[in-house]
Amino acid sequence: MGEGLVFALSMVLGTYFIYKSNVRELNLSRRQSNFLLSVSHELKSPLTSINLSLETLKKRTLPQEKIIELADVALKESKRLENLISDILVAAKLDHPYTPKKQWLDLISIIHNLINGYTAQYPSVAIRLHTDVEEALLFASKQDMQSIFTNLIENAIKYSHEEPIHISINDQKENWLIEVADLGPGIPNSEKSRVFQKFYRLGREETRTSKGTGLGLYIVKKIVESHNGSVRINDNNPKGTIFTLLLPKVAGNEGVIG
C-alpha cells in the first residue's frame, strides 16, 4: 500500500510539473507569436510613411513649408524605426550573460538630452524634469542608461495621451532614486509583474491599437538588474503609472571604461 501511495503521489506530481511546463511554453509561444505580428506591423508602418513622403517630394512641386512638413514626418518615422531595431538588438544582447562596460556619467545630462529630442518630436507633450542636485553622477553604461530612459519616456508618451510627464531624480546617499510618472490609464495590479516579461503586452495583438513590441520594459528591467539596481511600478495619483528605479551610484566594474 505504501509503495502504491508513493507511486500515485509521484504520478500526480509529475503530471502537475509537466502541466506547468506546458503552460509556460504555451504562454511563451503566444508572446513570441504576438511579437512577430507586432514587429511586422512596426516595421511596415514607418517604412510606408517614409516611402509615401519621399514619393510625394519626388513627384510634386511643393511650397517650402510642405517640404519641411513631409521631411519632419520622414525623420520622425525613421527615428521610430531606428528605436525598434535598437530594442531588438539590445534584447538579443541581454538574452546572454551580460556585463555592462561602465564610465562616470551624469544622469541629468542624459535625461535632458532625451527630453529635448522628444519635445521637438512631440511638441504637444510636456516632459518635466525635477531634481534638487546639479549633477547626478553614476558609474554605468551610457548606452544602457539611454536605452532605459528612451523606453520609459516613449512608454509614458504612448499612454499619457498628451498629458504631462514628470521625471524626478533624488539623491539617496549611495543610490539614485529616479521616477518616471505619467497620467495614462495605469496598469492593473495583476499585470504589474508581467509587463516586464519578454514579448508581453496587454491584450491581443490582432485587436490592439497601441504601438510596441513587448520588449521595452523587459529591456529596462534587465539593464537595471545588470547595474545591481531595481525597478518597480506604483500607481500615480489621481491616475496613471510611476516607474521607480533605484540605481547604485557605483556598482562594480569600477575600472572598466566603455
Could you give a short description of this structure?
The chain has 5 helices and 7 strands, in the order ααβαββαββαββ. The chain is an alpha+beta fold. The protein folds into 2 domains: 2-94, Orthogonal Bundle (Helix Hairpins), CATH 1.10.287.130; 103-248, Heat Shock Protein 90 (2-Layer Sandwich).
Please indicate the percent range of residues in DSSP E strands (runs of 2 or more).
15-25%
CATH superfamily of the largest domain: Histidine kinase-like ATPase, C-terminal domain
Share of helix, binned = 40-55%
Q: What is the tally of helical segments?
A: 5
Question: In one word, what is the shape?
Answer: globular
Describe the main β-sheet briefly: 5 strands, mixed
SSE-based structural type: alpha+beta
Distance between the termini: 66 Å
Q: What is the CA-based Rg, rounded?
A: 22 Å
> Which fold does the CATH topology of the largest domain refer to?
Heat Shock Protein 90
From N to C, what is the helix and strand string? HHEHEEHEEHEE
CATH architecture of the largest domain: 2-Layer Sandwich
The CATH class designation of the largest domain is Alpha Beta
The tally of beta strands, per DSSP, is 7
> Strands of the biggest beta sheet: in what spatial order?
2-4-5-7-6
- Mean pLDDT comes to 82
Uncertain parts: 204-208, 253-258
Structural domain tally: 2
Your description of this structure?
The structure is a single chain. Strand 6 (230-235) and strand 7 (241-248) form a beta hairpin. The protein is α+β, with helices and mostly antiparallel strands and 258 residues long. Helix 4 runs antiparallel to helix 5 (216-226). The chain is globular and about 90 Å long. It has a five-stranded mixed β-sheet with strand order 2-4-5-7-6. The N and C termini lie far apart (66 Å). It has five helices and seven strands.
